[in-house]
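To close the chapter, one final illustration. This time we ask the reader to focus less on the individual chains and more on the assembly as a whole: which components sit near each other, and how the overall shape emerges from the parts.
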Amino acid sequence: MAGAGLIDDYVTALDRRLRGPEHVKDDLLAEARDSLHDAAAAHRDGGLTEEAAQRRAVAEFGPVTTIAREYQGLLGLAHGARTLRAVMLVIPLTFVMWELNRRFWIGAWNDFDAPPPDWYLAIARFNDTTAWIVAGVAIVALLVGRRLARTTLSTVTLSRLAGAVAVGAVAVTVLGNVAILAATAYLDVTRLVMSPPVGAATLVSFVIELRLAVLARRCVAFSSV
Amino acid sequence: MKSDALRGHLDALLLATLDGGQLHGYAIIEALQKRSGGALDLPTGTVYPALRRLETAGLVASEWSTVGGRQRRTYRLTKAGQRALAAERTAWREFTTAIEGVLGGGPWPAQA
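The assembled structure is written out below.
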């Protein structure tokens, strides 16, 4: 396309202000560039020179700071939805993987020399239900977010809400795992090292949760404009 | 027309432009300007985020397709979008009827 200078400069300036999933960003920028070229072509057909047509197309598109804010909201929302879908699927799967592993290598977990105290059972119950509660919260957040997108609530606000839910979900999951680990260590530390495969599964669970924590942290970063 | 006044109605306007069939982004902007007689003064760059938000809400669907020999993202109404547009039109008619009843009749008769 001939003489795309002003349009290229505008799209580059927009690109520099945006952070988020690359494929979504590329898609948004490709569409913006197409629209600017369409507008410039219409103005050229109306008798403007190439440069004047591009200048007018860029002016009509809007100030780059204003437009970047709207686009950033979309990027934050796309990342937030992706993170919530990951939370919804990965956290229960990780829990099931760990439980199956433990049942195969160790067997029943309640074989302490003495019955575990009530506080330990409470922590265990909390940890056992957390994965399902967190997955349920993620599903509800995705459905509510879809509904809220039909209101006048901005995408920036929606992406912040998604980020808050994702951070909370991952934090509760990590808290449950750390709590049961600490409680087991306090009660009978040998249980933590009695089965290397289960120890490896625990390590894998924490690595997965760390990855989800990074995604959740990015939700907050991408929703900041 | 000021963009602030339009913003609250932008979703309904976008749904209405897609009522006749699928369009790519710039064609939607042209349709908005044409059907408003050029009165809609909105930064065109705000239309695309609004379309994507409507897509997130499930009211429109989009895909890349070849239009006029070029790859363009085209948008179309979903079933939910058609229902939302019908509801918006009903609400708008009720609103304009009520406002017209108050503002449109000229000076009110003096009270005796």
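Residues 5-62 of chain A form one domain. Chain A has a mean pLDDT of 90. With these observations in hand, you are ready for the problems at the end of the chapter.
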